[in-house]
Amino acid sequence: MKKNSGRSIRFQSRRTVRLTAAEDERLTRQAVTAGISVSEYMRRLFFGGRPIIAGTDDQTIRELRRLGGLLKHHFEVVKRTGSANTLAELDAALRAIRRAIEALSEKR
């Protein structure tokens, strides 16, 4: 619920939507994945509010960025030692992380 001058605004209307059991299960699962209530999920779908992003996608992107930072640091250390094979492997890993982050970001 939105806040207005410190007081909560209550929703004024209620609508009934008929769903099959499979549709209801899917709707509930998608709302849980997004980390929001079914009502909020439906409002965002219907009225084009903020994009629905799974909380796990955000967590995954943060973790991939963290790992990329660690690899980048390791990349600099290995570069000083001059191991060409290890540099190629680290470069491939960094590129894979970048592609994964970009793929998850496109879902938004």
Radius of gyration: 22 Å
Number of E-type strands: 2
Biggest sheet layout? 2 strands, antiparallel
Per DSSP, what share of the residues sits in E-state strands of 2 or more residues?
under 5%
C-alpha termini separation:
23 Å
**What is the residue-mean pLDDT, rounded to a whole number?**
80
Order of helices and strands: EEHHHH
Which strand order does the major sheet show?
1-2
The percent of residues in helical segments reads: 55-70%
Count of all domains: 2
Class per helix and strand makeup: mainly alpha
Shape: elongated
Unreliable residue stretches? none
Count the helices. How many? 4
Write the layout of secondary structure elements.
Layout: E1 3-4, E2 7-8, H1 21-34, H2 38-47, H3 55-81, H4 84-106
Antiparallel strand pairs: 1-2
Helix pairs in contact: 1-2, 3-4
Q: Would you kindly provide a written description of the structure presented here, covering whatever features stand out?
A:
The chain is mainly alpha-helical. The protein folds into two domains: 20-52; 55-106. The protein is built from four helices and two strands. The protein has a two-stranded antiparallel sheet with strand order 1-2. The mean pLDDT is 80.
Task: Briefly say what this structure is.
This protein has helices at 21-34, 38-47, 55-81, 84-106; strands at 3-4, 7-8. The chain is mainly alpha-helical.
